[in-house]
Amino acid sequence: MHSVRHIRLRRRSNFMLFEPNQLTIQYIGQVGVILRKNDVAIAIDPYLTNSVDQLSGFPEGFWARRYAPPMQPETLTDLDLVLCTHDHMDHMDPGTLRTIADASPGCRFGAPKVCLPALEALGIAPDRLQALGVHEAWQFADQLRIHPIPAWHEARVQDEEGWDHYLGYVLQWDGLCLYHAGDTLLTEGLVEALSGFSIDVGFLPINGRDMFRNRLGVVGNMNAMEAADLAAYLRFDTVVPVHFDLYPNNSEGISPFVDRLYQKHPGQKFHIFQPGETLLYGKAK
């Protein structure tokens, strides 16, 4: 990790000085981000407790956060929307979501249909919830359209009505296109689902998977090289690696991702966030 600061300074992508209505991106750990643009604030998969550290059935110390949450969820008083990609605790954390629901009383919550009963059980009113599925995009605001994208974590799981249990999201937002993958493998189906979008910023998990983690019930994702290759293949403007820095026992580190980009995709822009860091993004004209 000693080279991260050097990389960040050299590979600034399109993060630049503030302009009106510019997108701000704040990284809050694991895969969580807060996005703000045009007076709309969105959190995706916010995880701001140590709930995962308390999970039973794992070797002692297997789950241990490397750093404290960069903010407290009660400080998030201006959120308009929270998107959850699936019901794993580091993506749909009860403690975080319950507190956000109280702190931002006008906030709505979108998630796969299977997640809605658990969100209601947290005390979030049904009229604040939106079931999301790949069959229909959701027009959330005048200039924001949300496209649910299927995810393979490690398989694609659907109910009998075709509602996916795992999702990613493409946000078409006032001239920008963002993709948050949630947790997923790289598959032909994912490439097909994304091929119709020109993605400006993509957040991709890079923690990979292996037999020993599978034995413990840890479900995996694409690895660093696959994420780098996907971003280059689909011509993301900027790729952001996530799901690598919080839990060392469920990570393959950052070096393989950076090496792959430098060796195979030298023109691909990227940014490696530090916890709590906020950056401004604007498309080059």
From TrEMBL:
<dbReference type="InterPro" id="IPR050114">
    <property type="entry name" value="UPF0173_UPF0282_UlaG_hydrolase"/>
</dbReference>
<feature type="domain" description="Metallo-beta-lactamase">
    <location>
        <begin position="64"/>
        <end position="244"/>
    </location>
</feature>
<dbReference type="InterPro" id="IPR036866">
    <property type="entry name" value="RibonucZ/Hydroxyglut_hydro"/>
</dbReference>
<dbReference type="Pfam" id="PF12706">
    <property type="entry name" value="Lactamase_B_2"/>
</dbReference>
<dbReference type="InterPro" id="IPR001279">
    <property type="entry name" value="Metallo-B-lactamas"/>
</dbReference>
<protein>
    <submittedName>
        <fullName>MBL fold metallo-hydrolase</fullName>
    </submittedName>
</protein>
<keyword id="KW-0378">Hydrolase</keyword>
<comment type="function">
    <text>Counteracts the endogenous Pycsar antiviral defense system. Phosphodiesterase that enables metal-dependent hydrolysis of host cyclic nucleotide Pycsar defense signals such as cCMP and cUMP.</text>
</comment>
